[in-house]
Amino acid sequence: MIEKIKKFAKENHVPIMLDDGLSFLLSYIKDNNIKTVLEVGSAIGFSAIMMANLGNDIFVDTVEIDVERYNMAVNNIREFNLEAQINVFHADALTFKTEKKYDLIFIDAAKAQYKRYMEYYLPNLQGVFVFDNINFHGMVDNPDLTKNRNTKNLVRKIKIFRDEILADNRFTVTYHKDVGDGVIVAKLK
User: Fold this and answer.
1) Which of 123, 138, 126, 131 is nearest to 164 (CA)?
2) Which of 6, 45, 119, 140 is least surrounded by CB atoms within 10 angstroms?
3) pLDDT digits (tens, 9 = 90+) for 66-83
4) Cβ proximity of 61 and 39 under 8 Å
5) What does the pLDDT look like over 12-38, one tens digit per residue?
């Protein structure tokens, strides 16, 4: 069943976490007794399903702006009978409101907006932020890998974010350059 979701994602160019990045995230959740997760960027529900599958005491709220992907996430979560553990919200993550506090906030949406997401959800954090795609296919450290002006602008913004969060004294930051497409864990001090 999970292979079906991965196959669909690959065939339809839906971005989901790379296997080793996902494995890192799942291990982090287990090793650090994470129970509540907010995911910014549901896509089709793949990572939310994988996180919730770690145990029936793990609860995930996930936000997706795209209505088609939101509907697919809802259906995929229903097929795994995880509706009691995963709440999917169709909303813009920068206007979504919640009073909940989360052990982990996983940011995997619009890469150019990472800093805005971080600041927006900081009041909801009682643990760590995890950011995926910090290397953006190697282009952050080597922008010449693309000739596309929009992509160059995007990777410049990711690099600015990466440099800023590595220097942000509100967090203890670990940059896992060789995990997936680059993962940063920022633990609130």
Assistant:
1) 131
2) 119
3) 999 999 999 999 999 999
4) yes
5) 888 777 788 899 999 999 999 999 999
